[in-house]
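Worked example (supplementary).
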Amino acid sequence: MNSFALADCTTVDAALSQLHDGAVIKAGGVDLLERMKNRTIQPSKLVNIRNVSSLRGIQETDQGLSIGALTTLTEISEHPTIRAKYQILSDACGHAATPHIRNMATLGGNLLQPVQCWYYRSADFQCLRKGKEFCFAFGGLNQYHAIMDYGTCPSVAPSSSAVALLGLNAAIELESAKKGKRSVAIKDFYVDPDANPTKFSVIEPDELLTAVTIPKTSPGSRSAYQKYGEKESFDWAIADAGVVLEMEGNTCRRAVITMGAASPVVRRSTEAESMLIGKQITEEVARAAGKAAMTDVQPLSMNAYKIELFPVAIYRTILLAAGQMDRDPSAAG
Amino acid sequence: MANAHETKFRRWTTFTPPQRPAHAAHCGLVLHRRAYVHDCGRPMNPGMVKNQINGGILQSISYTLFENRLLDPAYGLMVNPNLETYKITGSRETPEIEVQLVEAYIGQSSTDASGIGEAAGIVSVGAAIGNAVYNATGVRIRQTPMTPAVVLAALNQPGVKEGRLLA
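After joint prediction of all chains, the assembly is encoded as:
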């Protein structure tokens, strides 16, 4: 690891004033320090925002919920309102990585992780997403890579909380010293690698992610998230699914189905959603929705097995959201 | 009167094998219980012997299900050179482990003690898990690590009906 300067800030304004000349924000430091140790990033200055108390905490507002960027994954997963009304987010934050990491990792950091491709994460490979011209994953080892929606880079979206927040139609609040505040819907937050391979989200280098706002859930709304990995503990998802259902009696009025680990950017499956709308949720309907989510798949040389995993992950999560199945004991976490 | 060896041998022969050692989950193998019977000569320190066997079993579960040194085929560089991507058994993957020692005194040394190093669990566990998978699914897996991709490929071989995924 190279030497670097550390600016310790206690207010948002102080942190924003430090964000120039390649300075990088450090919150929990979980992903950032790993990338610094791997030498895939060598910043000259870190801006420590861990002590900015105004960025921490969960507020219930008239519009819904506002979660400070520094709130840890543990705090989110254990929050009583989130557990009661936003089960999908509680599930997603409560099953990422390990308990130790969840105690350190912040929501903002979780959302801003670059992709989990081992070629991108290794200093030995200078790939497309580091501004070079070649992707090593297509001809190399790609068992954990994308099965859909990829063009030039088949890496997968790493953030499990993003899978939940996309289902909840959340907005990301950003702030910079020059341009002030702006709010970006999570569906527009991540950048498709085909549009700009070196950018992972729309956040600018001088911007700080301050909070995530989630609209109120409508009555009859139920949700769930489940993640499947090769291991039950301390593993990345090889398939994960988030489901939000709005029920009217036994009938599904509206459904949102989101997937991580399938594509470079977290995605909604409108094909799967359309199989649920206007129907009663049964195992048959849920299985059909899971299958429909795999309409446009193009597996790579080593990851065709994901085509069988995703339908199972989706149908089990639909049934979990609908209250017709207990949490899958073999799901990760 | 039965000597110590016979008593131990009787205990070994009446030992109940695990009823449900493993099953193929939708995306991987879940071990429930692992039993190990070891001919160990005279255990000088039975606690240490059991400890050694426990460690061997954990390590070999890791070899059998997770561990893989992945080298990029074109560049020969390891792509998973850290404990995040080089997967090893964690606490959630650890089954209930039961160890029984068979004290066999065969007079090969002055103490009748045997070496109990790597032999303990390392070699046999892969085969035992392979047998358990065969018992649960009717499919032989002859490759390690038995990752979800390997298990699904084995279950999807032509002619395999038992254990086939329903989705």
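Two points are worth noting when inspecting this output. Chain A touches chain B through 33 residues (CB under 8 Å). The first strand of chain A starts at residue 5 and ends at 8.
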